[in-house]
Amino acid sequence: MSKALAGKVALVTGGSRGLGAATVRLLAGQGADVAFTYVSSAALAQSVVDEVQALGAKAVAFQVDHADTSQAPVLIDQVVAAYGGLDILVNNAAIGVYGRVDDPEVDTAALDRMHAINYLGVIAVIRAAAKVLRDNGRIITISSGLGTRVGLPGLADYSATKAGIERYTLGAARDLGPRNITANVVEAGLMETGMAADPAVLKALLAGLSIQRVGHPDEIAAAIGFLAGPTATYVTGAVLDAHGGYNA
Length: 248
What we know:
seven-stranded parallel beta sheet, Rossmann fold, alpha/beta, oxidoreductase activity
């Protein structure tokens, strides 16, 4: 694998499993020193660190609850202390909570936590990272096809968080363009990660895809790797679809 990111420092939020872990492995494989966050399983996070180190690359994990926005500046300070700077930010940490807006039994506390993690948590990390990102840096926010098209009942709250972070990231592209920092969105599709565990929802979403299968995390990580790499210097304010044609 090319070491196109040698000398770069990357931070991946939610990097202990699924797409986050695949992204950590990809960026480290391209030569970057990688930091990532996890929320609960230190053992799972350590397994990713061990895997990266076995490849001869560097990785460090930080426990962060992204629902608590006060932890974002602390996280960025920790990354800079560990590696001396920051070049690439991948906003991946997210949860999924579903329910119709007219459901009297909907778990509003769970929806509020999702909003805190998926939307406010992303904003907090972008704000903190923007202060230290080196010129020519990268911000890549992981969204979903649901950020553009809802398509099914019960997804209003989740879709709204994704639409919000997409617009915020594109706004960051405007604000940080004078420093040649790019900010882009990857709309990820259904993956083999258990995110859409409800069989009925999964069946309905698959039926709406052009490629009617779930994706592998490595397939979406490849899109992230492109936006993080040296050939994407003139790509900013873009939304890259990697969801099997959900919007086609």
